[in-house]
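Zgc:136872
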Amino acid sequence: DDKLPTLDGRLIFVRSQSQNEFWPALLEKAYAKVCGSYTDMTAGTPSEAMMDFTGGVHIYIQLSEPPQNLWELMCRAGKSGVLMCCGTDQGTSSNTLSPNGLVLGHAYTVTGVIQLVSRGKPVNLVRLWNPWRTGEWKGDWCDRSPLWQTVSPKDREKCHAVDDDGEFWMTLEDFCKLYSDLDICGMNPNFLDETSCQWKTSVHEGRWVPGTTAGGCMNNKDTFWTNPQFRVQISGEFSEKADGKNTFVSLIQKPDKRRRHLVKNQHIGFSIFEVTYKAQIGKFPASFFSTQRPVAQTKTFMNAREVMEFIRLKPGEYLIVPSTFKPNESASFLLTIHSKIETHEEDEKKKRFFRQHSNKYEEVDAEQLQKILNDQILKGDLKSGGFSIDACRSMVALMDDIFFQTDVSRTGTLSLSELRNAIIASGIKVNDELLNLMALRYGASSGHVTLESFISLILRLESMFVLNTWNIKQMDCYSLYFQWMYVSMYT
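Tokens:
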């Protein structure tokens, strides 16, 4: 469907200055189908648009109560090239031009941040852009502000412009005073932290069903326990510092209507409890919540599509309970947990192990691979026959071939659908649940799998396939196959 709406031969909505350029209008039409119609794209929020187009990690900041590390966060986001949007207060009427040049109730883009030296003192500046391309800030550090004469000629040439193009600078203090909120959205959570750590991501889907799993918030003591419950393990990096946050939790409610303007968001939130009783199987009962207080929770229940919290959790097991504010309200949701993991030591062990068994070019042939698999992976347990030299030759010959043949996007990584095709091509059977587990364990924060991770995955999967098939044959019970493979991925 490549037809575009026109009037008198001209595109009605988004159009390029070039008469033969149609990708903006085609992209707009695709998004209209996602939303339900062109009408359903009217208004909305920048955060929803950023998440819809990137599928990334989003954080919302209320600028009336900014975090202490706001400047550092914006600097990391700027260097990472992530998206940043902000909005002005509604005032008495939206889209009204105020005396200071800003439009009330209007969305702006943050296009850069920089620290300059003015009169011997550092000043933090934020660059903003009005998508209308007209109307600019008239206060300090605006295009015609005399303050630009107080910085070095090099900085002035780098930052200063007097074009009426909708882009301008202002101080961080004015930014927090004149704008109500800031939304940052990146493809991964790296911009959240100043250290070069890695993140583990887990995703859970669920639904609040009236009468069964829609227990409402903690005020409803008799029914709160009936809400969906998710046990998660937090490990790795932890700091006793107040700002040593290591876990980012996002709760998104899914639309229950095809047309976006008909969607009614529920007030949603979540509570997190530390699991002290490890032997509990199934749902935690009401008695657990009557004696345990949450170690973290959303500050308020909001009727927004997403609520999120960036928090500090000690290593251990936790129970996350997402809920609507009132009981018996129906909605589907997506719960995502990003937690820091310490992988440097484990990575070094893997590198040392590989270097011990590879040649000077850090490569292995079929015979070396056979020795590694049988001696180090199977630990000499060759009841099943172990890995034959033919199998290892096939692995060496086909590994690169399978990876690059299934990488149809030519990104050098495998998406979830490409990973499925690669696993099928390798001749190993997996179900959807196991495939998702592979993407979580061996994929990056974006879910994509690199060649190195793919090789590690296939080697582990092949060894588990050999061992588990033998064990299941011994038990004469093939129905346990996927259960064995599922457990083996994390043991």
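The two ends are 48 Å apart (CA to CA).
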